[in-house]
Fold Two component, sigma54 specific, transcriptional regulator, Fis family protein.
Amino acid sequence: MSETSEAVFAGTVLVVDDEKNIRRTLRMVLEGEGATVDEAVSGEAALERLTAAATDPSLDLPDAVIMDVMLGGLSGIEVLDKLGELGEDGRPPVPVIMISGHASVADAVRATRLGAFDFFEKPLSRDRVIVSVRNALRQSKAERELRELRHRIYGEIIGRSEPMVELMRMVAKVGRTRARVLITGESGTGKELVARAIHEASERHAHAFVKVNCAAIPRELIESELFGHEKGAFTGATAQKKGLFEVADKGTLFLDEIGDMDLDAQAKVLRVLQSGELTRVGGHAPIQVDVRVLAATHRNLQEMAGAGEFREDLFFRLAVVPLRMPPLRERLDDVPALARHFIRQACEENGLAARLISDAALGTLAKHSWPGNVRELRNVIERMVVLSDGDLELDDVPPELRSDGANAGKAAGPGEVAIGDGPFDELLREKSDLPLKAFREAVERAFILHRLREHDWNVSRTASALGIERTHLHRKLKLLGIQRGER
């Protein structure tokens, strides 16, 4: 066994088979190549473990699965089908290799359609097993690295709405270049997060990302902050100081709210962008720097340039690639995902147990216009978490937002059912004497069941239709006691 083979097989393989001899044979082959092997004797046991690992960040998924088609309880095909609800785009979260001693063409076709990585028959060929598992582990490693890269680049940028998908596409594209980028957008939209994402996507990501809030630095200090000063350059300059351009050498300098920078400082920034050289305040020797400059503003720099309030030549130097951050009111579809993210953050930062948020509360939040954008949403969520006694319900939403949602329109939106409409009439009549909480749970249970039946009990599609995350829906099913196939 070569060192390369050991590196390729440095992963965990879950073997699912109710035949002890098959499990033992696969263990010997795979451990001989350097893999770690775990076993499950039934489809139910495998599904329980994989579901737990896919929904709990503290647990590790195996890197690959080998599973028999014919198992005592749930068949391998049924487990594969259910695993599609745990991954992305209906695919299992890890590569699954299906094996069978009585395979049919129909089995192979169905397994392939359900996302199986490979399919072959017993008796097992040692070479075939090794090649298939090696390829599966390589794919698993590549997908894990891609997820880690996405997390490193995009960090806390949350959203799958059309404006955000387009923005992320642009971030990935410009990140690979050295082009200067001007990020515009209202206050609170997350311009700094986009600047960090561009830096992380660039060849400079191993070097410093330095942020300068141009609006927060007094006019008389901005040049010293950006370009540094020599000892004795002015009263209080008791030692030499590097400027932020020097600190960001080989990395990225982010000039936030550059529209608030005075014209004299703008002229010196332009000189650095043109020549790559700066001179410290009180100094004479030029200093060479290699810095990528990103800038952001909530103001219209082009209009300011026309009015003589911003240097036009600097504007064109900065705005090689303009990126606009959409306000939250233009991407309300992202509110549920953002809200859940901020709930997790608020719970961690305040030492509180994890909490859920009801669909009714999310629906109300998604109707607000959010003039303060993502920053306002984050503050509201933290307030709700701190003041609530448990999971967040509609009553935990600030009153001013509840009234705003109530006035947003009386017509039922997508996925909503008006009171007294069709299949819920009987429920409303039967449960009308229940206390509010019990009635709400009964309606929620009936509605989720209704959606599950509409989507043939596919949890991923149902969660998408409900506008909630798949893991949240799994928790709801358990909490409400909903069983698959229930009528």
Notes: Residues 35 and 119 are 20 Å apart (CA to CA).
